[in-house]
UniProtKB/TrEMBL annotation:
<dbReference type="Pfam" id="PF00106">
    <property type="entry name" value="adh_short"/>
</dbReference>
<keyword id="KW-0560">Oxidoreductase</keyword>
<dbReference type="InterPro" id="IPR020904">
    <property type="entry name" value="Sc_DH/Rdtase_CS"/>
</dbReference>
<dbReference type="GO" id="GO:0016616">
    <property type="term" value="F:oxidoreductase activity, acting on the CH-OH group of donors, NAD or NADP as acceptor"/>
</dbReference>
<dbReference type="InterPro" id="IPR002347">
    <property type="entry name" value="SDR_fam"/>
</dbReference>
<dbReference type="InterPro" id="IPR036291">
    <property type="entry name" value="NAD(P)-bd_dom_sf"/>
</dbReference>
<protein>
    <submittedName>
        <fullName>Short-chain dehydrogenase</fullName>
    </submittedName>
</protein>
<comment type="similarity">
    <text>Belongs to the short-chain dehydrogenases/reductases (SDR) family.</text>
</comment>
Amino acid sequence: MELLRDKVVLVTGASSGIGREAAKQLVEKGAIVIACARRFDRLQKLQKEVDNKERLDIIQVDMRSEDEIRTMFTKIKEQYNGVDILINNAGVSHRSPLVDGDAELWREMLEVNVLSLCICTREAIQQMQEKKVDGHIIHISSMSAHRVPPGGGVYAATKHAVKALTESLRKELRVAGSNIRITSISPALVKTALMTSYLKNEEARSMFTTTKVLDADDVVAAIIYALTQPPHVQVHDILVRSVHQIT
Ligand SMILES: NC(=O)c1ccc[n+]([C@@H]2O[C@H](COP(=O)([O-])OP(=O)(O)OC[C@H]3O[C@@H](n4cnc5c(N)ncnc54)[C@H](OP(=O)(O)O)[C@@H]3O)[C@@H](O)[C@H]2O)c1
């Protein structure tokens, strides 16, 4: 894990689920992690749980605000001279059908899952270039980038966008002669708060008792795999499902 030692890693959406687990494990592997989200109390709790507290910094940010995102990157630049690795993980999922759904829920999904990912990516690349590091960006996408569940059209559209953005960024970076890598990871069902709110409590309970879905650390294993390949290896997309899941 020497490849991760002292790397400055920004993990978005680190107050819960996959982001929280990723922040924790990356600290254990020697990285310096900046964990961000809106719920600062949860980030403080995470900081208390890790052994190397000095390696986990926390920042409160609302990913729907470009100003707040920019301020966060400025702080990172001042304190750590910029990021080496960005994990674009923050995301929301609402079941809000196309025929009668709520535009505010659609807007939130588009702003958090797509727009903030683009803004963070732009800011991170700028810092990597200034720092002269061949950094790595990981987009936490979804199996919904590869198939469309009923009622989840806008969520699937955001993740299809992430798929397009991954490929587009890879090409932009190659054309620019950059060795910054871009990886997307596409999990199926993961046992987190996002899944519980998407399925609604009763449905989630029944799903989690009848089907063994992925845990957050199954996704983190894919993140670590992608990050620890030799510098010339770019893992493009990892699709990961529980063996029990059909769709
Ligand atoms: N769970 C699944 O089945 C599944 C499957 C495929 C892909 N994914 C993807 O995995 C990623 C992580 O999801 P998860 O399952 O770990 O869900 P989660 O436990 O609900 O975590 C979502 C994270 O995103 C953050 N977030 C949401 N809105 C935000 C905002 N406006 N500003 C800042 N942070 C915000 C939340 O922090 P705050 O609320 O504290 O701000 C939280 O830390 C998402 O991109 C999701 O689409 C999940």
